[in-house]
Design a protein that fits this description.
Elements (H helix, E strand, L loop, with lengths): L7 E4 L3 E5 L17 E9 L4 E7 L3 E8 L2 E5 L4 E4 L3 E6 L4 E7 L10 E8 L9 E6 L1 H4 L5 E5 L8 E2 L5 E8 L4 E3 L5 E13 L7 E2 L3 E5 L1 H4 L10 E16 L6
Parallel strand pairs: 12-13
Antiparallel strand pairs: 1-2, 2-3, 3-10, 4-9, 5-8, 5-10, 6-7, 6-9, 8-11, 12-14, 14-19, 15-19, 16-17, 16-18, 16-19
């Protein structure tokens, strides 16, 4: 478990960024990834500011907005506004330039946008760049675990990603409600709101900004299947979680 207050961080006059893994100038050789998840950044961007045009290559990038809205534009002609309840994926492939900016004017009070951005290594390199976004707010209202992005064959999801061993699930839980995590060798749970208890995890509950890495079998010393299949229970104010299901790791 990594508490939000213990994560690596980058702070500027317009950005507060909290990193689950090494990122940018914040490098820890023992904390570079988990499973196939390379980046999980909790970003807060001031109104009227953002990430100017910059390049990516051979990366699957999934973005989930918690509040505010984020404007995306890229060199392949894709554009969109990402807001809470909508999942976005950009496949960088052979190379792409894009920008991400806060949709609100700097004159609007309290106009920050907060979003979680997650990067994965793709199965195939140097493919054609791609983009997708999908609204999932209605599905989340039911309170269960919703598969919002997946590359796992045969698994239904709002959008597809270019990694056959990974899927992202989201749940918005009412107070006291429970969901069961998918059973997988590697899991990553990030709490975006409220608190949750996780079955078999000392130190619960986890709160907003806390992350949990789950490992099964010989990789983690646990029993087979211990990386998933655990029950997550929301606290008294409810909760939202992002849960990665991963069936492989880098180099495997």
């Amino acid at each position: 478990m990594i508490r939000g207050t213990d994560r690596l961080r980058t702070d500027t006059d317009w950005l507060r960024s909290r990193h689950c893994f090494s990122f940018g100038d914040e490098y820890d050789p023992d904390n570079t990834h988990h499973g196939v998840l390379l980046v999980s950044n909790d970003e807060t961007v001031a109104a009227g500011r953002g990430f100017d045009t910059h390049p990516h290559r051979n990366t699957e990038i999934v973005t989930w907005v918690l509040r505010g809205s984020l404007v995306h534009q890229d060199s392949a002609g894709h554009s969109g506004v990402v807001y809470p309840g909508l999942v976005q994926r950009m496949s960088a492939g052979t190379g792409i330039l894009h920008s991400e900016r806060n949709d609100l004017a700097s004159s609007e009070p309290g106009g920050e946008v907060r979003f979680i951005q997650m990067w994965l290594q793709p199965d195939e390199w140097d493919t054609e760049p791609g983009y997708a976004q999908a609204e999932v707010d209605g599905q989340l209202a039911a309170g269960g675990l919703v598969t919002v992005a997946s590359g796992i064959p045969g698994q239904d999801a709002a959008i597809r990603i270019g990694n056959r061993g990974a899927a992202l699930h989201v749940a918005r839980l009412r107070p006291g409600a429970t969901v069961r995590l998918p059973d997988a060798p590697f899991g990553h749970v990030f709490v975006t709101a409220g608190t949750v208890g996780v079955e078999g995890v000392p130190g619960s509950p986890l709160g907003d900004g806390d992350a949990l890495r789950l490992i099964a079998g010989s990789d983690g010393g646990g029993a087979p299947g211990a990386g998933g299949g655990r029950t997550v229970t929301a606290g008294p104010d409810g909760a939202e979680i992002l849960a990665w299901e991963m069936h492989t790791r880098l180099g495997a």
